[in-house]
Design brief:
The chain has a two-stranded antiparallel ribbon. Helices cover 68% and strands 7% of the residues. The longest helix has 25 residues. It has one domain. With 176 residues, the chain is mainly alpha-helical. Helix 1 packs across helix 3, helix 2 packs antiparallel against helix 3 and helix 4 packs antiparallel against helix 5. It contains six helices and two strands, in the order H-H-E-E-H-H-H-H.
């Protein structure tokens, strides 16, 4: 479910990569503020890419950045993107919601002992999901429908890659 989008550093200018990292760090910061420190584990390149697309679609002024301390490594200073609260909040909610449903899918797909680890993480993820769903019910609806359709397709044992990818494509269409 995650890990398909990665920045290709060799193709980016130094300034572009710094801006990308600033957006990544801002999303990490927002996850911590809205959903707690543990929610930072939901941070991934896929949701960072989603945020960059949202920012591009919003248009408007040039992105603003400022320096600050990293919450995960306080000895390190980072460049943080500042502004566009709505887009930051939506991307943070998407990260939390996608992580919750991925955790549920991992529980369903895992053997008992490995599933215990995932089950131990589920209450915290469920709490973060409730908070995200309250702030962004449209994102929660899109992601939960995608997860239901995906589980149904997995149960049916469908061999078609296109049919397996369709729920994710429909979810992305709703999110944009």
């Amino acid at each position: 479910m995650f890990g398909y989008v990665r920045p290709q550093k060799s193709e980016l200018l130094v300034r572009e990569f710094e801006e990308y990292r600033g957006v990544y760090c801002a999303l990490c910061s927002r996850l911590g503020k809205e959903y707690g420190f543990a929610a930072r584990l939901a941070l991934n390149y896929d949701c960072t890419f989603y945020l960059t697309v949202l920012l591009s679609l919003a248009g408007g002024e040039r992105l603003r950045f400022s320096r600050g301390r990293c919450a995960v490594n306080p000895l390190k200073t980072c460049v943080f993107f500042r502004g566009s609260e709505r887009e930051l909040s939506a991307a943070a909610a998407a990260a939390v919601l996608l992580s919750y449903f991925k955790l549920r899918d991992d529980i369903a797909d895992s053997p008992f002992w490995k599933g215990l680890l995932y089950r131990a993480l589920l209450p915290a993820a469920a709490h973060a999901r409730r908070r995200a769903a309250k702030k962004h019910p449209e994102i929660d609806g899109a992601v939960s429908r995608m997860a239901e359709k995906q589980a149904e397709i997995e149960r049916s044992g469908c061999p078609s890659v296109d049919r397996c990818a369709e729920p994710t494509a429909e979810m992305l269409a709703e999110l944009f």
